[in-house]
């Protein structure tokens, strides 16, 4: 496997007047679904508090707010034919990173994965991501937090084996989905396992810090449960040298709230 040490990204952000806006965190991002929300609606309200956004696709579907970096994602095999042009366009507009496939280890449709066997994810990454080595930071396929065999980090371990040294990677991209009540202790342990995995694969910066993107995370429960979790999780992520970027799931269809809750969205953007 060939890697290069990822440099810390200093992303500029223009602070917009918003009720709970603070200076944008260089780590904090937004996740939105461009099938139901355009980039304008998804990013304008939060532009003063976040520095990047992604939408599981190569194209933002609209204009991302000033100060927010759009990070294109290869996402699914259906986007492979348009990927190169879209990625080049995003890089020309200031993108500093590119994301690979989305949850290749789980089924498409309702589960939202790209449903790819390891071999397809290896060859696809080599064909579509490797050509951008040196021009942008490149992520691994984004895997789930499942601990089942053949999923999550187990899938990614098989992917690295299949790459046999020929997949360019600058950061580990992973998700965290909890269907149980928010458990901050389990979350901390999971982040630790991502850092350990990245270190074991040599995905570190020049100081030896693992390079991890928590590109999608969420917990279930009431608004109060989620707010309590975020009150603990965000300072932890901000202070964790392994975590380079993170994004809570997700901006709702109108772009007005996150997780369809104004209190949850306000807590997410205001907590540091």
Keywords:
272 residues, alpha/beta, 6-stranded parallel beta sheet, 3-stranded parallel beta sheet, 7 helices, 9 strands, 31% helix, globular, disordered N terminus
What is the alpha-carbon Rg in Å? 17 Å
Helix content estimate: 25-40%
CA-to-CA gap between the ends?
A: 35 Å
Strand content: 15-25%
* Sequence stretches where pLDDT stays below 50 over 5 or more residues: 1-21
Arithmetic mean pLDDT: 89
Order of adjacent strands in the largest pleated sheet: 3-2-1-9-8-7
Number of strands: 9
- Major sheet characteristics: 6 strands, parallel
Shape: globular
Element-level helix/strand string: EHEEEHEHEHEHEHEH
Structural class: alpha/beta
Number of H/I helices: 7
How would you describe what is shown here?
It is a single chain. The chain has 272 residues and is of the alpha/beta class. The protein is built from seven helices and nine strands; from the N terminus they run E-H-E-E-E-H-E-H-E-H-E-H-E-H-E-H. The chain has helices at 39-43, 80-92, 118-128, 152-163, 184-200, 223-239, 262-270, and strands at 28-31, 52-54, 69-70, 73-75, 97-101, 137-138, 172-181, 212-220, 243-248. The chain has a six-stranded parallel β-sheet with strand order 3-2-1-9-8-7. Strands 4-5-6 form a three-stranded parallel β-sheet. Residues 1-21 have low confidence and may be disordered.
